[in-house]
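Example record

The entry below shows one chain as it appears in the dataset: sequence first, then structure tokens.
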Amino acid sequence: MLPPGGSVGPSFSFRERTRKHVAKRYDEEIEVVPDPIDADTPVAFRWRGRRYEIDQRLSSWREAWIAGRDGHKQREYFRVLARPAGLTSDGNLDADGGLVQVGAVYDVYRDVSRGGWRLARVWD
């Protein structure tokens, strides 16, 4: 990730300057802790036995389509910045001397048609 302003200083390696973000697809069931004010919005989720705290909701959208015999499908997606519960930093420092934050961007969705929540993608 580039620092604010988009310039790359000498402390960044070539690998860091050229790194591309990659999405990994999962489509796995997750347990969601809903927001106490807006029950349709997640504030945390549990995936593969680990709890993740949502620090920021980046965007949300809906997708709907007709799937042959299965009928109408509808999903409500949330792209969130989340981290494993209890962690805020890995102890490493960035180029400015600040702590490197632990976390990633996750796409989670609520299957409106069938019910339940799933993890769609992880962006690293």
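Notes for this example: DSSP finds one helix and eight strands in the chain. The longest helix spans residues 14-18.
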